[in-house]
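Q: Here's a chain of 174 amino acids. Please give me its 3D structure as tokens.
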Amino acid sequence: MLTLRGEHINLRALEPDDLDFLYELENNPEVWEISGTTAPYSRFLLKQYLENAHRDIYEVKQLRLCICDQDGTALGLVDLFEFDPKNRRAGLGIVVLDEERRNKGIGSEAVQVVLDYAFKVLDLRQVYANVLEENLRSIHLFKKLGFEQVGIKKDWILSEGNYKNEILFQKLQT
């Protein structure tokens, strides 16, 4: 896959060298709530995942790309998931690992680049995102990029004994 380029970031396929980065990200309990993770991942399991990460989105219904700065440093991940070519839609998820790198435009640019790819290359009609009601940064990000709030999933996520609502955002191809 060619690297997808933005002005300040690039999106590229995962590489074997991303093992340490993926290990740190996937084993960060702060992102477990949004990823549905309930237990740590081993390096062995993540290495196997990376060995299969080259598989086509039409086969595995997911595309995970590494967000990198211009120097090639891995900053986060952006995913298209639940890819449905018949109905021309996919979900979108994003995480920037380092708290200090958030709110610097990285996520916004990464989402815009992946949206361009989704709409122009994959010819999707719609992309949606699920965001916890308390995640004000992500709500701001998706609204800023033209996503529309289309629903609330009540008591959707159980976290530390409490249920949380999840907002469903959608962006239609124009």
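Q: Can you summarize the key feature?
A: The chain has a mean pLDDT of 92.
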